[in-house]
Amino acid sequence: MSKTKSCAESDGDRPPLRPKPPRIPPAVSGIQYNFCKNPACVNYGIEPKLKTKMSDHDFYTLSGGGKGFPLLKCKSCGEMPPLKSNAGLAEELARIACYLEPTPVPSCPNSLCGNHGAPLGTKHAYQSYGKNRGGSKRYRCRECLATFSIPTPARYQHDTHHNQAVFKMLVNKVPFARIVSMLGISWEVFYHRLDFIHRQCLAFAADRERKLKGLPIRRLYLATDRQDYVVNWAGRRDKWNIVLSAVASADNSSGYVFGAQSNFDPSSDRDAVEADAGRIGDHLSPSPLRKYARFWLERDYLASANKMSGKEGRIGTTLDSAISATYATAGERLDVEVFDEKTANQKLPDYGLQVHAEYTLVAHFYFLRKMLGNVEGWRFFLDQESGIRSACLSAFQPEIAARTAEAFYVRITKDLTVDRKRELTARSREVFKGIKLQNPSLSDAGVRLLMLKGEIANIRQFGQWKDRWVRHPLPTMSEPEKAVCWLTEHDQFDENHVAWLYNKASLHAVDAFFQKVRRRVSLLERPLHSSANAGRVWNGYAPYNPATVQKLLDIFRVVHNFIDKRQTKQGGIKMVTTPATRLGLAQVPLTYSDVIYFSAL
Questions:
Q1: How many whole angstroms separate alpha carbon 578 and alpha carbon 564?
Q2: Can you tell me the distance from the alpha carbon of 60 to that of 356, in angstroms, rounded to the nearest whole number?
Q3: Which of 89, 95, 189, 557 is the most buried (most CB within 10 A)?
Q4: Cα–Cα distance for residue pair 520/599, rounded to 1 Å
Q5: Residues 339, 244: Cα–Cα separation, whole Å
Q6: What is the pLDDT of residues 250-271, one digit of tens each?
Q7: Is the pLDDT of residue 67 over 80?
Q8: Over the stretch 158-211, which tens digit does the pLDDT of each residue have?
Q9: Which residues of 486-499 are buried (b: 16+ CB within 10 A; e: fewer)?
Q10: In sequence order, what E strands does 266-357 have?
Q11: Spatial distance between the Cα atoms of 333 and 353, rounded to a whole number of angstroms
Q12: 544, 528 contact by CB (below 8 A)
């Protein structure tokens, strides 16, 4: 017998051939992240070609930044932005924006009936038909006489009188164990109530925030920053922390917080994803072309921990040195946009999957565009972080190119004492008074403008990208030392307009929100490091489940936006407002019960 196998037999014995990957990750759901991020470059926003031949002309070349790590090199300005998976970004956007999807409206359950699919409220379609045993409203179809009920938010609950107490305690620094003890409930009931409150907060926020697309907003001054949260280890043999990063954007005018998203996906099965990634050889592809590009997998963790061994972040002792140190740290990274590299003192979650933080950052800015659709002018004030810069300049490229959006870095000194802050503000007031005496014809606003122009004339360059920074001449107690860099700088505005833009630059709204989170949510307070514990942190109040971090952020964001009140004066009249009323999403401050018992039907 011949030893030669047939074609069919040979093909069946061989492992499947891996298809040749594209040159550039293809766009997915309208997202193409990979292009030059330099707003001053002619290639800004121009997409590279997916495939090229020798005769083709492209505005970019590919450069190797390391094993499996391609960089896109712009032929015009020479910048080399790292490539990212557009599929991963689309998946992350879908994850953080899923709560905004409208819930199905109940209709006749009989698929053969003419009213099937006709929503409740359709004229002459349904009639009220009492309540069911659980107390939910019941309706009857006038055509086929089928009945259906609308479940109440607190269905299956027996002790509903505890709901408001649990809600208030969660956002007022009461630890979980004390809530259980004070209310005399079981842990099972407590976690059931936590999940119920979280669902209601998301449903309430979605109902209001779906209206943002039609809300006319002339200018939006958005401050964006991030905050890290530590999750405790669960076993004595595995004393390593999980460190999650959350990004938030807040409106400096109203204080409204648009999203506070952490980089953890609780819905993904870690074991299944790890097994599938190993089966298909996902690690053999360049990182932006992988199926699971947005997730931290075990191979990624081990590579990062080995690379970061013995490395320490640079720290500046003054505002200028801190700015320079941040640029130097970013320049030392293989990927300048990655800031959440793992060390040997950290671990990945045991269940669910941690997302590469830069994917959450980019998805956050696409989320802002998805949620806010009727804004005439965008002003972004960003913490000095390369990943935040790239995320903003990518997601809002059309607006930046059209000059309807501007982006600024803002850097402040956060660790000054109260006495030092008072000293700096007092000194600036004296300077202000001196200039006012020298220019008696100028109003206070005119003096401020003159001081700003003086600082702009003394602009300084920092970092390998020669970014141009301006010191703000009039510090405040919340921002005692501040420097600003106009990332989208151009010559379309006059000097007065430019000066007032620098004056507006602030991280106050988002910093105030994150400070409230630390002070009022016990599980998310800042952890204390111990020199005797090799860099590990265990906090008795910190969460053990990483999914709890996002639940508490969602809950507190609703409380901050709709419930927490502030007394203000308008035209000599005292008014009690919330961020939502100041933005126009609510007419009056709301209560805890308004959220708990909210129903969209």
A1: 6
A2: 26
A3: 89
A4: 27
A5: 12
A6: 999 999 999 999 999 999 999 9
A7: no
A8: 667 789 999 999 999 999 999 999 999 999 999 999 999 999 999 999 999 999
A9: bbbbeeeeeeeebb
A10: 353-354
A11: 23
A12: no
Q: What pLDDT shows up at residue 103?
A: 79
pLDDT tens-place string over residues 363-413: 999 999 999 988 999 999 999 999 999 999 999 999 999 999 999 999 998
- Do residues 212 and 222 make contact, with C-beta atoms less than 8 angstroms apart? no
Written as one letter, the residue type at 181 is S
Within 8 A by CB and 6+ apart from 11, the residues are none
Instruction: Confirm if 68 and 271 have CB atoms less than 8 A apart.
Output: no
| Gap between the Cα atoms of 84 and 420, Å rounded | 43
Which amino acid, residue 2?
A: S
- Rounded CA-CA distance 509/525 in Å is 19
Q: What is the mean pLDDT of residues 122-129?
A: 89
Characterize the bridge pairing of strands 460-462 and 60-64: unpaired
Q: Which residues contact 334 (CB under 8 A, 6 or more apart)?
A: 65, 66, 69, 307
User: What residues contact residue 350 under an 8 Å CB cut-off, 6+ apart?
Assistant: 234, 270
Picking from 381, 339, 351, 384, the residue whose alpha carbon sits closest to that of residue 246 is 339
